[in-house]
Design brief:
It is a single chain. The protein is an all-alpha fold. Helix content is about 70%, strand content about 0%. It has one domain (about 1-70).
């Protein structure tokens, strides 16, 4: 947010909301960017062949999560 304020030349004493700064800059929030990148990485890992260590680790994590979820119910 600080960098976007610098790019837009918004001084610290001028009261401009973060939402307005985002609207003026037209940029995405860092949370949106991280979410998009995580999902794209997840897609690559999920499409790997079984037997690849990272795919197996993801499968183990999902299975473990689902078992915990079933136990809590």
């Amino acid at each position: 947010m600080r960098c976007q304020r610098q790019i837009l030349d918004v001084c610290w004493w001028v009261h401009v909301s973060d939402a307005e700064v985002l609207q003026r800059s037209g940029l995405s929030t860092i949370g949106d960017i991280l979410c998009h990148r995580r999902l794209s990485l997840f897609g690559h890992v999920a499409r790997l062949d079984p037997g690849v260590p990272v795919h197996d680790a993801l499968r183990l994590m999902v299975d473990t999560y689902e078992d915990r979820k079933a136990m809590a119910s």
